[in-house]
Amino acid sequence: MDQFSNLLASDPIYMAIAVVLAVIILLGVIKKLIKLVLVVSAILVLWIAYTTWTGGDTSIKSLPDKIQSGVDAMKDKASEVGEKARESAVKKIDEKIRN
User: Fold this and answer.
1) Low-confidence ranges of the chain (pLDDT < 50)
2) Distance of CA 86 to the CA centre of its chain
3) pLDDT at residue 57, as a whole number
4) Taking the CA of residue 56 as centre, how many other CA atoms within 13 Å lie in the half-sphere pointing to its CB?
5) Which uninterrupted H or E stretch holds 16?
6) Angle between the 12-53 and 2-10 helix axes, to the nearest 10 degrees?
């Protein structure tokens, strides 16, 4: 690591290349963060519009409860699908063993 830092410090061309690469990486990260903020903001606006049009509660305080109930419903559905897949796999294995 010391050799690398000494190489960068001793040659200005290498230092310039390293700075340019660092700036490109930094801009890429910032660009992705901005996209993430925009997507989350758009989802929040769509959620507020949907709950307003359906006559639901639009307070942010109720959002974690709604998210938790959605996550619980998805877990239940996923466990049902997993159980069906397991039963199907066991049935197919039994059929292959019998034949």
Assistant:
1) none
2) 28
3) 64
4) 13
5) helix 12-53
6) 110
Buried b / exposed e along 42-81 (16+ C-beta atoms within 10 A): eeeeeeeeebeeeeeeeeeeeeeeeeeeeeeeeeeeeeee
Task: Specify the residue for token string 């109930």.
Answer: 69
Taken in order 53, 57, 63, 68, the sign of the CA dihedral is negative
Name the token pair of 20: 């340019």
Q: Residue holding tokens 């239940």? A: 76
Residues across the chain: 99
Angstrom CA distances, 55 to 9, 50, 60, 69, 92, stand at 64, 8, 15, 19, 48
Tokens, residue 37: 């903020």
Token pair in block for residue 60: 């942010």
| pLDDT at residue number 61 | 74
- pLDDT tens-digit series, residues 50-60: 888 887 766 66
Distance between CA atoms of residues 85 and 78, nearest Å:
10
Q: What is the DSSP letter of 55?
A: T
